[in-house]
Design brief:
The protein is α/β, with parallel strands linked by helices. About 45% of the residues lie in helices and about 15% in strands. It has a single domain, classed as Alpha-Beta Barrel (TIM Barrel). The strands form 2 sheets. Strands 1-2-3-4-5-8-9-10 form an 8-stranded parallel barrel, surrounded by 8 helices. It has a two-stranded antiparallel sheet with strand order 6-7. The longest helix is centred in the middle third of the chain and has 18 residues. The radius of gyration is 18 Å and the shape is globular. The protein starts with a strand and ends with a helix. The structure holds 3-hydroxy-3-methylglutaryl-coenzyme A (HMG) and magnesium ion.
Length: about 300
């Protein structure tokens, strides 16, 4: 049985959209709790413009203060060389560049065309290779763009191929606004897998319409995709993707995969408990199924 690989994006994607400034200690506590669950990779922050995403402005301090667990990779989002240098200085084990399959979203998100953004990644790829630092690349709006509507699988496959040829080792294919259904997943994977090996692909589902778990199960059971991004507690959203809700909740995704017979890296309940810590600090009720169950059981 092939093991499921999860990139826990809660501390980055989960928190980047929060308007209230969360204290550094709470972020560190959240990551430290996640580190004890068995999850093997945690995206701990983003080295973007602090004025564009204020919640991530303290990512340097977050990375410096977390208690690193053995065997856990602590990665960070970087838009360009400047972000990469900041991430490396702060001790990130891995970096993730990001672009999109639709021009309008990319322009609004990172102020560049797709081509320009990939050009900005060239020096990052070269630096990462020299340092032997693993590099992933996100392809946002792989199903739907909040500004342009439906995105064609061919456009995604083109960007994915360019990024792999450039030298990134891993792709995260994003349903940024959480609108994809299993039939969209099939259409995309039918096209993408012609040129992109399944082992390089992670799928990144936001859960706006409640389809994320179904999408992941479809990709795993029908296409043998084993890499998924998820966010503890189902927090998240992109400030430049209006209407998008959080990522698929890690605990719900783990539960669904495990119940379907997959080999998962962490216990769903342990992740729900880590999520409860940050939800309490944010004053939020849990939105994940498991979080609600745990809350209900505690209240009985
Ligand atoms: P820009 O304004 O085009 O950059 O921003 P620039 O190169 O023209 O520089 C302008 C100023 O920004 C300069 O400062 C630079 O030093 C500074 P000045 O000289 O004016 O004082 N600057 C930086 N400062 C700190 N760190 C940096 C950096 N780069 C430039 N790395 C940029 C381009 C991409 C930086 C900007 O548009 C930005 O930060 N955007 C934020 C994008 C973002 O974080 N979006 C959310 C994450 S993406 C997401 O959520 C989707 C995902 O989850 C997958 C999915 O769901 O699909 C990944
Ligand atoms: Mg996202």
């Amino acid at each position: 049985m092939t093991a499921i690989r999860i990139v826990e994006v809660g501390p980055r994607d989960g928190l980047q959209n929060e308007s209230a400034r969360l204290p550094l200690a709470d972020k560190v506590r959240f990551i430290d709790a996640l580190s004890k669950t068995g999850l093997r990779e945690i995206e701990a922050g983003a080295f973007v413009r602090p004025d564009r995403v204020p919640q991530m402005a303290d990512s340097e301090s977050v990375l410096r203060r977390i208690r690193r667990a053995r065997g856990v990779v602590y990665s960070a989002l970087v838009p360009n060389e400047q972000g990469f240098e900041r991430a490396v200085d702060a001790g990130a084990d891995k970096a993730a560049v990001f672009t999109a399959a639709s021009e309008t979203f990319n322009r609004r998100n990172i102020n560049a065309s797709i081509r320009e953004s990939i050009d900005r990644f060239r020096p990052v790829v070269a630096r990462a290779r020299r340092m032997r630092l693993p590099l992933r690349a996100y392809v946002s709006t792989a199903f739907w763009c909040p500004y342009e509507g439906k995105v064609s699988p061919a456009a995604v496959a083109r960007v994915a191929r360019t990024l792999l040829e450039l030298g990134v080792q891993e792709l995260s294919i994003g349903d940024t606004i959480g609108k994809a259904s299993p039939s969209d997943v099939r259409r995309l994977l039918d096209a993408l897998l012609k040129t992109t090996p399944a082992k390089t692909i992670f799928l990144h589902f936001h859960d706006t319409y409640g389809m994320a778990v179904a999408n992941a199960l479809c990709a795993w059971s029908e296409y043998r995709i084993t890499g998924f991004d998820a966010s503890a507690g189902g927090l998240g959203g992109c400030p430049y993707a209006p209407g998008a809700s959080g990522n698929v909740a890690t605990e719900d995704l783990l539960y669904a995969l495990k119940a379907s017979g997959a080999d998962v890296p962490a216990e769903p309940k342990a992740v729900a408990a880590a999520a409860a810590l940050i939800l309490a600090r944010l004053g939020r009720e849990p939105s994940s199924r498991l979080g609600r169950l745990a809350r209900g059981a505690a209240g009985r």
